[in-house]
Design goal:
Layout: H1 3-44, H2 46-49, H3 53-67, H4 75-82, H5 93-106, H6 114-129, H7 137-154, H8 157-166, E1 169-170, H9 178-194, H10 212-246, H11 250-267, H12 278-285, H13 293-307, H14 314-332, H15 336-352, H16 356-366, H17 371-383, E2 395-396
Parallel strand pairs: 1-2
Helix pairs in contact: 1-5, 1-6, 1-7, 1-9, 3-5, 3-11, 5-6, 6-7, 7-8, 7-9, 8-9, 8-16, 10-13, 10-14, 10-15, 10-17, 11-13, 12-14, 13-14, 14-15, 15-16, 15-17, 16-17
InterPro entries: Cl-channel_core (IPR014743), ClC (IPR001807), ClC-type_chloride_channel (IPR050368)
Organism: Kineothrix sedimenti
Protein name: Chloride channel protein
Length: 398
């Protein structure tokens, strides 16, 4: 391919990124706003909803088996397509993953939302890419759609772009998709904001000064956050395997596990650990957590996702990281909100085995003046995660 062809293709991809961003941002806004409303309903009627999580899980899984085609593979479809599989990503994945996640959250599952948004954008992008006979078009538009979906939901376009570019293969950035991914991410963020989806942000007050002691504490936090992300990835994979070995019937598995999760969630502070975990993030930044919150959110999220419920891992990882950071702050003599913010980004980075995305999401959510601290803590967390990832199909650079 000569230089002119490369420029032409980049212009085509960037032009297609705009309608792709509009579509992904619109769907993400609808999904996100309804999800927040569903969370409020669940919190109001926990005693009437949480005991039926297992029964609802059976309905979700049966629907996937009966009508979902290959949609039940979820994020795995995106990784397979990104690594060169010729299989299509069915567009029916979009309504299935949206409705499945809404039901999971309504009845008290501890799950995220980014997996849904990334799948929405990825399915749209991959479908669009298959309609154009351009070299690498399917992969570039898949990544562009993934960035658009992430950005449309979280409204952090820089983090969304680099998450899409680095998540498929560790240590490799797909620079061919950079310009279209950025275009789609900013478009999706603008569209979802215009449709009323608010961005979460928190301005950290820098009531401390840099010192060698502070640097040591930040690096120590990075080590601990890296271990926490590693443990989450490890136990998520091990628990999924254990559930599948002990309860081979997936419908029976989700019924038993879901019912147990719902009932235990009621016993643990009336659903405090259900849903996204944004309640815990808010309390972490405002000094309102219990010292055990990170452990319980960790446990309920691993169990929910291992049982087969829909959602994602990232927002619960934000919650686990923030609560763990707030817990460690008192032990290390650090400002609680500052330590919670570092954990918010670094545990996500460790568990997803990504580096640039968590650094940028820290800067976009908590302010660019904190960028040096996020670079230090996320960098060490990335090194200390042992190359494990919540995404089993993520490739390792040889």
């Amino acid at each position: 391919m000569n230089y002119r062809e490369k420029i032409r293709n980049q212009l085509i991809f960037t032009g297609l990124a705009i309608p792709l961003g509009i579509a992904a941002g619109s769907i993400a806004a609808l999904f996100g706003r309804i999800l927040l409303y569903i969370g409020n309903i669940r919190d109001e009627y926990v005693y009437f909803l949480l005991p039926f999580l297992g029964a609802v899980g059976v309905f979700i899984l049966w629907s996937y088996q009966k009508f979902g085609d290959r949609s039940s593979k979820g994020m795995a479809l995106l990784f397979e397509a990104g690594h060169g599989s010729k299989e299509t990503i069915p567009l029916r994945l979009i309504p299935f993953v949206i409705i499945g996640t809404w039901l999971t959250h309504l009845f008290g599952g501890s799950a995220g939302r980014e997996g849904v948004a990334v799948q929405i954008g990825g399915a749209l992008g991959h479908t669009l890419g298959r309609r154009f006979s351009i070299e690498s078009g399917e992969k570039i538009l898949l990544l562009t759609g993934m960035a658009a979906g992430f950005s449309g939901l979280f409204r952090t376009p820089l983090a969304a772009t680099f998450f899409a570019l680095e998540v498929l293969t560790v240590g490799v950035l797909e620079y061919k998709a950079l310009l279209p991914a950025l275009t789609a991410a900013f478009t999706a963020s603008y569209i979802s904001g215009a449709l009323g989806l608010e961005k979460f942000s928190y301005v950290l007050s820098k009531n401390f000064s840099f010192s060698p002691s502070l640097l040591f504490k930040i690096l120590f936090l990075g080590f601990l956050f890296g271990i926490m992300g590693r443990l989450f990835s490890y136990f998520l994979h091990r628990t999924k395997k254990l559930f599948s070995e002990k309860l081979k019937n997936p419908l029976l598995r989700i019924l038993i596990a879901g019912t147990a999760i719902g009932l235990f969630s009621l016993l643990c502070f009336q659903g405090r650990y259900s849903g996204l975990g944004t309640n815990l993030i808010s309390m972490s930044l405002n000094e309102g957590i219990y010292s055990w919150d990170f452990a319980f959110k960790f446990l309920f999220t691993v169990l929910t996702l291992s049982a087969g419920f829909q959602g994602g891992e990232v927002t619960p990882l934000f919650s686990i990281g923030a609560t763990f950071g707030a817990f460690l702050a008192s032990l290390l003599g650090l400002p609680i909100a500052f330590s919670a913010a570092l954990g918010y980004a670094a545990v996500f980075g460790s568990a997803s085995n990504t580096l640039l995305a968590p650094i940028l999401i820290g800067a976009e959510v908590f302010g660019p003046e904190m960028l040096p601290y996020f670079i230090a803590v996320c960098g060490l967390a990335y090194i200390c995660n042992g190359n494990l990832s919540i995404y089993p199909l993520q490739k390792k650079k040889k």
